[in-house]
Every structure is written in C-alpha cells, then in structure tokens.
Amino acid sequence: MKKWLIGSFVGAILVFLWQFLSWTILPVHSGEAKYTPAQTEIMNSLSASLKEDGVYMLPTVQPGASMDDHEKLMKDMEGKPWATVIYRSAYKIDMVMPMVRGFLVDWFLVFTLIYILTRAGTPTAIRILAGSVAVGLFTFLAGPYTMHNWFQTPTETYTGHLIDGFVAWGLCGLWLGWWLNKK
User: Fold this and answer.
1) How open is the CA angle 5-15-95, to the nearest 5 degrees?
2) Is pLDDT at 33 greater than 90 in this prediction?
3) Contact at 8 Å (CB) between 128 and 178?
4) 84 membership: H or E segment, kind and range
5) Phi, psi at residue 51, to the nearest 5°?
6) What's phi and psi for 163, nearest 5 deg?
7) pLDDT the model gives residue 183
8) Is the pLDDT of residue 12 over 90?
9) Which of 7, 19, 20, 28 is the most exposed place for a label (fewest CB within 10 A)?
C-alpha cells in the first residue's frame, strides 16, 4: 500500500505539473480561446441579456419545445452563425481550490490506474506505460474530443487536450513503470 500511495502521489504530481505547464507557460492550449477586439461590446451585450450563469447555445429553442420546434430550428440554422457561450456574472481570481481539487482528482486517477494495472501482479514497465497512455487517450476521447466534435468546433480547440493526454499520462506511465517494478 505504501508503494501505491507514493507511486500515485508522485504520478499525480507529474500529471498535475504537465497540466499546469501546458495551460500557463507552454502554448499547448493557445488555440482554445481566441481574442476579439469587440470583446467589450460583446460582454456588455451578454451582461445586459443574460440573467444567470450558465452555458448557452445560441440559437436554441425554449425549454419544453416540441420535436417539431427543434427540427424547424435546425433547418432554419443551416448555414447561419451559431455560438456556445459560457457566461459567468463575476470573475474570481482565486485558483487555490480549483488547483487543490485538480490535484486530488489526478491523485485518485493515478491510484485507480495502479489498482487496475496490478490486479494480476505487477506488469512490465512497457505495459504500465501503455496502460497509462491508454488512460490519457480514453480521457481525451470521452471528454474533450467527443464534446468538441459534437459541436463541430475547430480542431485547434481540442488538440491541446490530446497532447496533454499523451504527455501527462506518458510521464506518469514512465514513472510508474520504474517505481512499481523497483525492488
């Protein structure tokens, strides 16, 4: 158990450190949020129009609309602009709790990975690396890729997540492959 705790803690540090670097220092996620010189006007319009925090699909039908209304809107939207807006009425600078939660999730994921990989004894380092990279690929495909692909968003909005999946979990797999096989 001690080996698992230490292995998962260091693995979580590696995953978390890569995530931090890819979002702050490295340009991995630079394509995810574009700049517009009209941002002040857009924010003023959104603030005047939206009364609560949330994710908005524009245009969309009212809650409770019939399938006919949905189909009509889809036909009317064909070839026209649309948007997904994440709106928050107040920006909060505090990143401590989101970072703590993020690290704890990473730790849980790495611990769970160790549990799964070692059910039949400790696998070879290459199998641990492959299993770890598979976790990164699964998280990318089940999360960012599926979500962005569904909304037909540009590729550059999710390629950073693919890179994160391979690099972060590859680093974790290299570490765990060495650590779990260490005598």
Assistant:
1) 100
2) no
3) no
4) strand 83-87
5) -105, -10
6) -60, -45
7) 81
8) yes
9) 20
How crowded is residue 138: how many other Cβ atoms within 10 Å of its Cβ? 12
Which pLDDT band holds residue 14 (cuts at 50, 70, 90)?
very high
Q: Which helix (H) or strand (E) holds 85?
A: strand 83-87
Q: What is the pLDDT of residue 180?
A: 95
Distance CA 74, CA 80 (A): 10
Q: In this structure, what are the phi and psi dihedrals at residue 119, rounded to the nearest 5 degrees?
A: -60, -30
**Beta strands at 83-87 and 54-58: parallel, antiparallel or unpaired:** antiparallel
Stated as kind and residue range, the H or E segment containing 179 is: helix 159-181
**Inter-residue contact 135 to 109 (CB < 8 Å):** yes
Q: Given pLDDT bands bounded at 50, 70 and 90, which one contains residue 148?
A: low
Amino acid at 149: N
d(CA 63, CA 164): 36
**Does residue 61 sit in helix, strand or coil?**
coil
Report DSSP letters for 113-152, one per residue: HHHHHTBTBPPPHHHHHHHHHHHHHHHHIIIIIHHHHHTT
Q: Tell me the β-bridge partners of 55.
A: 86
Mean pLDDT on 88-96: 90
